[in-house]
Write a structure and sequence with these properties.
Structural class: alpha+beta
Number of domains: 3
Largest sheet: 9 strands, antiparallel
CATH class of the largest domain: Alpha Beta
CATH architecture of the largest domain: Roll
Distance between the termini: 76 Å
Number of helices: 6
Helix content: 10-25%
Shape: elongated
Oligomer: single chain
Strand order of the largest sheet: 14-11-12-13-26-25-24-18-22
């Protein structure tokens, strides 16, 4: 079997797929990429047994068809340093060797029989389907990943929750201290359905999805999801269990509202945060008369910092404590120039929303307060 392929196209796809492969695998074959050459295309697969990602590339020329596996480091190291040029790949199944010829040289290394490579389990009948724009899905995943938990006792919190209802598709993440809810009103269904996407396949998708648009089709049942996009597809095991009622923790009536420049607030928090206690990272927010005062102190090391920022404020004067690093994560994952921070009282969660919502979307972030020692 012989085929010709672009060096940079092959290298970029292998790099993307290599993120699926674990550094240590129970099955040696999972250290490999699976290549299937047929009909003028090559389908490359990477798997860690729970996540299977495939990418399809057009070949410049192809003689014969076949399937083989090759160690991921061998072929990645071989092609990643090459400038753009055609590569001629000869596969000798009798010798179990692969020969790559390029402009000024050649490589050869062993290949493995592909029969041992694990196959993805098909979805059950009656799987639900979501169609979503790839740039929109990438944005929603990027905005949500930081809020996922690492909780061995509640594994449902360790992923991103997709909640399809008659009103919208909500994409939600929470670790119990902060929460992100992205609602898209253009995607809805009369048949409610939901699934929890683990962190690893969510990260793989974020990196693989095109920012230029194009449709992504997500099919899922109770155990697995099959996600098809322009450059390939991803099949993954889902987190099983019931996700908490995220809407119940979002406070409804928040009479105290701050409108403030997002980048100015980020800068101020970064400047005072080093003076807060390492363990708590507590920053006191005091708002009154169009001014937000940020205070941080570390009693153990006798350090403190204070900074004031002008803002628009409707409400009574109040002081509330937030974890500085969590507030920074929230502000860094929003895009608008201004943010609106909605508060009820010092014991209830603060709601942070962008002043300019994306079209057909409602983006909301929530941060739990910390106890202030007055």
């Amino acid at each position: 079997m012989r085929f010709t392929i672009s060096s940079t196209a092959l290298s970029s796809r292998l790099l993307s797929l290599s993120r699926v492969i674990n550094s240590k695998n129970t099955l040696p074959i999972l250290d490999c990429f699976l290549f299937e050459a047929r009909n003028g295309q090559v389908v490359i697969t990477a798997s860690d047994s729970e996540n299977v990602m495939q990418s399809t590339l057009n070949l410049d020329s192809c003689e014969g068809e076949g399937t083989f596996a090759v160690n991921n480091r061998n072929i990645l190291d071989a092609v990643k340093e090459l400038p753009e040029q055609p590569l001629t790949v000869d596969v000798n199944m009798g010798e179990f060797k692969m020969y790559i010829t390029y402009q000024n040289g050649s490589y050869n290394f062993p290949i493995l029989n592909a029969d041992e490579y694990p196959k993805a389990q098909p979805l059950t009948d009656g799987a639900a389907t979501i169609n979503i724009d790839s740039a929109l899905l990438a944005d929603n995943i990027t905005r949500s990943l930081f809020a996922t938990a690492q909780d061995e006792l509640r594994p449902v919190m360790n992923g991103i929750y997709f909640d399809l209802t008659a009103d919208s598709l909500a994409i939600v993440a929470s670790d119990g201290h902060k929460l992100v809810r992205n609602k898209n009103f253009a995607i809805k269904s009369d048949s409610p359905a939901a699934f929890i996407l683990p962190k690893k396949p969510a990260s793989l998708l974020k990196n693989a999805l095109s920012k230029d648009g194009g449709d992504v089709v997500i099919r899922f049942d109770a155990r697995s999801a099959e996600i098809s996009f322009a450059e390939g597809n991803l099949t993954c095991r889902l987190i099983e269990g019931r996700y908490p009622n995220y809407n119940s923790v979002i406070p409804e009536n928040n009479p105290n509202q701050i409108t403030i420049d997002r980048k100015s607030l980020i800068g101020a928090i970064r400047r005072v945060l080093p003076f807060a206690s390492d363990s708590s990272q507590l920053i006191r927010f005091h708002i009154d008369n169009g001014q937000l005062d940020l205070n941080a102190e570390d009693i153990d090391f006798s350090t403190s910092a204070k900074e004031s920022i002008t803002c628009e404020y409707n409400g009574n004067g109040m002081s509330i404590g937030f974890k500085g690093s969590s507030m920074l994560e929230i502000l860094n994952n929003l895009q608008s120039e201004d943010v609106n921070i909605q508060l009820a009282d010092p014991s209830r969660a603060g709601v942070v929303i962008p002043s300019d919502q994306p079209e057909n979307e409602d983006v909301l972030m929530l941060i739990m307060p910390m106890l202030l020692n007055d």
